[in-house]
Design goal:
α6 packs across α9 and α10 runs parallel beside α13. The strands form three sheets. The chain has a six-stranded mixed sheet with strand order 2-3-9-5-8-4. The chain has a three-stranded antiparallel sheet with strand order 1-7-6, with no helix packed on it. The protein starts with 10 loop residues before the first strand and ends in a 10-residue tail after the last helix. The protein has two domains: 146 residues, no CATH class; 182 residues, no CATH class. The chain has 356 residues and is an alpha/beta fold. Helix content is 43%, strand content 14%.
C-alpha cells in the first residue's frame, strides 16, 4: 500500500516584533509584496458575512493613483495591517521569529486594501515590484468588533501628513512648482476640513458628491500657487512661510469678509455670495495678495480684527452675485477687488498731507 507523502506548506520566516495594543496581540515583520498579495483578501462590511469584515468598497481612482506612485519608484513606510483567519493553518512565533504559512486568502486586510490593489496593478507593469519589502502588522482571529476598533483608530483618529510639510520641517523641496501646488492643495484641505474655518466644506475636491463644495479645488490652487513658491512667493517674502501661518492668514481674511456678509445675511446663500464663485474668489485673493498682506505685515498683525478694520465694508454697498451676473470674469473679478480695496484707498492721507 502506497504511503502518502506529507506535503510541506511553504512558509515565510522572518524576524518579528511581538507587541500588544490594548489587549490585542500583534506581530510586526517584513514580507515581500508578492507574498502579502497571495495571503490577503478583502472582507467588505455589509457584504461579506464574516468576523472582521470592516472594509469599504475599493475606489478605482485611488488605485490608479497608487499604481502611478509605486511605478514612480516610491514605497510605503507605514505597515499593512492584516487579520489571520485561516482555520487549517496558523502562524507560529518563537524567540523573535515568526513562521507564516503562505496560504492564498488566509488573512483579511484591516488597513492597506487600496495600497495592495495598487501594488497588484503595478506588478502587472513591472514584476520587480513584487520583490519589494513591505512592513506587515498581523493580528490573529480578530472579532469584527476588535477589527473595527483598529480600523476606526487608523481612519478617524489619525490624519495624513500634508505633502508640503517636508519643506517646513527640513527646508527641502523637489522643485518650486511641485511644492507650490502641493502647498496650495494642503491649504485647501486644511481650510475645507477645519470646522472653525470660514471655508469649511466650501471647497470642491475631485470626486466629491454632487452639491458638496462650491469653490473648485483648481480655482483655489491656481489663485494661490504662484504666491506659495519658496523665496519668490508673496507668502515667503512677507515671512508667512509655514503651513499654519499661511492657513491662519487666509482663514482670518475670509472670516473678516464672512462677518460683513453674515451681518447682511448673504454669506450662507450660494445664489448671492460672490466669493463662492471663481470670479469672486479670485478677486478676493487679488486684493489679499496685492494689498492686504503688505498692510498686515507693516502693522505686524494678521488678526481678524485688524483685517476687518482695514476692509471696513459698508453693509449697504456689498456686492452680491446678482451684481456680477452678465459681467465677464475679468470685470467681475475687478469689481470684487475694488470693493475690498475701497476702504484702504479712503484711509490714505489727502494729497496736501503728503510730505516730500
Amino acid at each position: 500500500m502506497a504511503v502518502k507523502k506529507k506535503i510541506l506548506q511553504p512558509t515565510h520566516d522572518a524576524a518579528c516584533l511581538k507587541t500588544t495594543f490594548g489587549d490585542i496581540p500583534a506581530y510586526t515583520f517584513a514580507m515581500k509584496a508578492e507574498d502579502l498579495l497571495q495571503l490577503h483578501y478583502v472582507a467588505v462590511r455589509g457584504k461579506d458575512q464574516e468576523e472582521g469584515a470592516v472594509q469599504r468598497p475599493l475606489s478605482t481612482r485611488r488605485i490608479t493613483g497608487i499604481k502611478s506612485y509605486i511605478l514612480d519608484g516610491n514605497t510605503f513606510f507605514n505597515s499593512f495591517i492584516i487579520n489571520w483567519t485561516d482555520e487549517n493553518f496558523a502562524p507560529s512565533y518563537s524567540k523573535g521569529m515568526i513562521k507564516v504559512p503562505l496560504i492564498p486568502h488566509a488573512a483579511q486586510v484591516i488597513d492597506g486594501q487600496h495600497r495592495l490593489a495598487g501594488l497588484e496593478q503595478a506588478i502587472l507593469t513591472n514584476p520587480k515590484v513584487g520583490e519589494s519589502e513591505l512592513l506587515v502588522t498581523m493580528c490573529v482571529g480578530l472579532s469584527t468588533s476588535d477589527a473595527a476598533k483598529i480600523f476606526l483608530n487608523i481612519n478617524t483618529e489619525q490624519r495624513p501628513v500634508p505633502k508640503s510639510l517636508v519643506f517646513d520641517l527640513f527646508g527641502a523641496v523637489v522643485n518650486d512648482e511641485e511644492h507650490a501646488i502641493n502647498r496650495a492643495t494642503d491649504l485647501a484641505r486644511e481650510l475645507n476640513d477645519d470646522p472653525t474655518s470660514p471655508l469649511y466644506k466650501l471647497i470642491k475636491f475631485p470626486g466629491a458628491p454632487r452639491g458638496q463644495g462650491s469653490i473648485e479645488l483648481s480655482t483655489f490652487v491656481s489663485a494661490l500657487k504662484d504666491h506659495l513658491k519658496p523665496v519668490t512667493g508673496t507668502f515667503y517674502v512677507y515671512r508667512l512661510r509655514d503651513l499654519e501661518k499661511q492657513k491662519l492668514s487666509i482663514s482670518n481674511f475670509f472670516q473678516a469678509i464672512r462677518d460683513f456678509y453674515s451681518e447682511a445675511k448673504t454669506w450662507s446663500s450660494s445664489s448671492k455670495n460672490p466669493f463662492l464663485r471663481a470670479a469672486g474668489f479670485n478677486g478676493a485673493i487679488d486684493f489679499f495678495i496685492e494689498s492686504l498682506i503688505k498692510r498686515c505685515a507693516e502693522k505686524g498683525s494678521f488678526s481678524i480684527t485688524y483685517m476687518k478694520d482695514s476692509i471696513a465694508l459698508d453693509r449697504e454697498g456689498l456686492i452680491t452675485w446678482d451684481d456680477l451676473k452678465g459681467k465677464d470674469g475679468k470685470t467681475a473679478r475687478k469689481m470684487i477687488r475694488d470693493l475690498l480695496e475701497s476702504n484702504l484707498l479712503n484711509s490714505l492721507p489727502s494729497h496736501d498731507e503728503y510730505k516730500f
